[in-house]
Structures are given as structure tokens and as C-alpha cells.
Amino acid sequence: MLFEFDSDQRLWQDTVRDVTAKECSPTLIRNIVDNGTDPGPLWRRYVELGWTELTDVESAVELAIVLEELGRSTDPTPYLATMTQFGPLAGAFADPALSGAAVYDGIAVHRDGADWVLDGAARHVLDGDRAERFAVVTGAGVFVVPRERVVATRSPAFDPVLHLAEVRLSGVRVSDADRSDVDTARAREWALMGMAVTTVGACQRILDLALDHVRQRQQFGALIGSFQAVQHKATDMHVAIERARALAYYAALTIAADDPRRGLAASMAKASAGECQSLVFRNGIQLFGAMGFTWENDLQFALKRAKAGDLMLGGAAEHRAAIADGYRAALEVHA
In the beta sheet, which residues pair with residue 101? Predict the structure, then answer.
């Protein structure tokens, strides 16, 4: 495996960064939060650019590049849920033009003649209130259900741009033709990798804003960036981000290469991203001082996106425990 981008990947990163800087700007995010601006045109722009077609295993690294930049921009669209949660579960049912969401638990299923019947509710479904289709994980497999047959209600979230919803299915009848033939464990690896690299992008945005601030803010007649304590905090943030970024892209590489270490790499990436956001969140707030808590400061959006990335799909402690359990089991096998 190569751990550096090749020339095509660097060009791809530059292209994505240019697009997000122009079309997913802080001004747009602020307008969505303050004025209720519709992010739909931005989603359709991603579709037009072909970003929703990065569904092949071989495109995992290129998808990760997009996700990092969207995390850095606090992307307000259902791209993350569609590409890393719905898509890997939906398999052949995925459509680049349609958004989707994944329902991982809370739904019961039973046979009724030739059909299956889905009942239950799931909370905190990412983009469940605006997804056009749902991949519903059940004991009988994954069923793809259209939006019209689902009741979804958006739930309050501390990240004002993030969409979380309670999703209910009541007596929804599906057939075997609606069932996706996918490996749910592999689909989860995509989801963890996507959430990890998105969190890394949000953390990078926090560091970028903090560095801009300390280069301009003066205290005691000197730029605060010249103070050693400030430099140490910024350095710690940089090191944590680089570590988490390396593990996130390593997870993407294992997916692209169909490496048997995929599951372990995905958990390592998610754990590292969670640890990273904890340090970056704390230091970012401290470097901004009281300004970091104000509504007028765009820092809040990156802080909230980073924190949400840790909470969804299991936090750092949960994934560290999973890694330890995996190693323990391996040692017992070889004992």
C-alpha cells in the first residue's frame, strides 16, 4: 500500500477543495442556519459533478478525499449518509441521483405469506428526514424502502446543520425483490471510515481558524501566536490531526485493496478521530478564548461537526474496546 497521494489524487484533492471553497462557503452555512436557505442546490451540484458515483471499492480513497473536504466545510447535504451509510448497504439499489439513509437498528421483521413486514422505530438516523430511500437493517437482511412508506421526524441536534431524525415503519410490506444482498460488516467499515475522515476534516477546519486567529490577535503588545504555550497547543492539534488522518486513509486503503484488516483499520480510524476531536475541540476553544463560544464565530460549526462525528457510530472508547477484544481473541486462538 502507498501512503502518499499520487498525482491524480492530489489533483482530485485540489479540485474538490476549490469547489467546496466556492460552493460550500461559510456564508452558505451561515445562511442555512440563520435564514433557512435550502442546501438542495448544493446536493444537486455534487450529483452533477459525479461525486455521488464514487461507489466502487477501488474509489474508496477518492471518496475519502471528498469526505475530508466536506467535513472541513461543514457540508450541509446528505452526502455523507448517502455515500457511506446508505450506499454500501443498498448495493445494486443505489442510484447516484438519489439521497439515502441507513436504519441500523430498531426495526423488527416477520414473514407474512410471500412478503416481509417491517415494524419499529429508530432514533438519530443521519439525514432520515430528507433521504429519498432507506436501507433498513433487519434480522432477515437489508431492505430498501422508499421515502413515501416511512414516517420521519427531524430531531433537535446541537449541530444546527446536521440532520438527525426519528424514523418509524409501521406494517411496511416488502418483498424479497427489495432485499439487498450485501455484507453488512463490510458496509459498516465504509460508514466508520467515512465518519472518521469527515471528523478529521472538521478538526482541520478548527486548527485553520485557530491559526488565523493567533496570527492576528494581540495581547500584552504581542501576537498571541508568539507565545510558547499557544504554539504548543497548536502543535498538539496538528499532531493529533495528522495521526487521525493517517489512520482514516489507511482504513480507506484497506477497503480499496480488500485487505482482511479492513474491520480493524476502520475501528482504529474511528477511535483516533474521536480522540483527535477531543483534543482539538478543547485547544481550539482555548485559543479563541471567549470568542470561541459566540454565535457570530464560525468556529462553532466546525466544533459541533467534529463532536458529532465522535458520537455517531460509536465513540473512541467503544472502538478502542473493540480493538482490544479483537487482539485478545487473536491471542487466544494462537495460544
Answer: 134
* Residue 159: HSE in the Cβ half-sphere, 13 Å Cα cutoff: 26
Tell me the CB-side half-sphere exposure of residue 108, using CA atoms within 13 A.
Answer: 6
| DSSP category for residue 154 | E
Residue with cell 484497506: 254
DSSP 35-99: H----HHHHHHHHHHTGGG--SGGGHHHHHHHHHHHHHTT--SSHHHIIIIIHHHHGGG--TTS-
pLDDT digits (tens, 9 = 90+) for 243-266: 999 999 999 999 999 999 999 999
Q: Are 249 and 273 in contact (CB under 8 A)?
A: no
- 334 phi and psi angles, rounded to 5 deg: -90, 0
Q: Using one digit for the tens of pLDDT, what is the confidence trace for 213-228?
A: 999 888 888 988 889 9
Question: What contacts 193, CB < 8 A, 6 or more positions away?
Answer: 60, 64, 84, 248, 251, 252, 255, 265, 266, 269
What domains lie within the chain, and their CATH numbers?
Answer: 98-182 (2.40.110.10), 184-334 (1.20.140.10)
